Each structure stands twice: as structure tokens, then as C-alpha cells.
Amino acid sequence: MKQYLYRRPFRVYLQGDLSDIRQIRAGTPQGSVLSPLLYSILTYDFPQCQHIDTCLFADDTAAPAKGSTEQFVPTSLQKLSNTLEE
User: Fold this and answer.
1) Phi, psi of 38 (to 5 degrees)
2) Residue ranges of the Reverse transcriptase domain (predicted)?
3) Number of other residues whose CB lies within 10 A of the CB of residue 52
4) What residue segments make up the domains of the chain, in order of their start?
């Protein structure tokens, strides 16, 4: 597993130029058969909070919140943020 995730090089080709080789510091190889399983393990216990619909897809996360007062939404989002940090 360590070799699967560790010391993977990449470079970027843009408008005819090739970047220097760098090391990927996070994530799994794109298109790998193991990536969906690892993603499921990572997000299995993602916290749920009232009034917030968490939306997870690939490497994106959105947390739209709705509430009846101006202060309710930021308070709800802060609770989610605190839970994630724990």
C-alpha cells in the first residue's frame, strides 16, 4: 500500500511546455481500481449535521446550509467545521 501512495511523480504539459518533475503529496492514482474503495472508506463516517446537506464527489466537498435567521447558517456551518476538525 505504501508504494501505491508514496513517491509518485508527475509533470504538467501545457501549451507545448513540460514542467519539472514533482512528487504528489496526497491522493490516489487517477483511474486506479483501488481509488473508489479508498474514497468510500474515507467518507464512510463523514459527519452529518442538521440543516446542512453535505455533498461529496471525488475531491470536492460542498456544505450548503439553510436557515431562518441571518446567524443560523454561519452557526450551523461552524458546528460542522468543528466536528470535522475533531
Assistant:
1) -65, -35
2) 5-85
3) 19
4) 1-45, 47-85
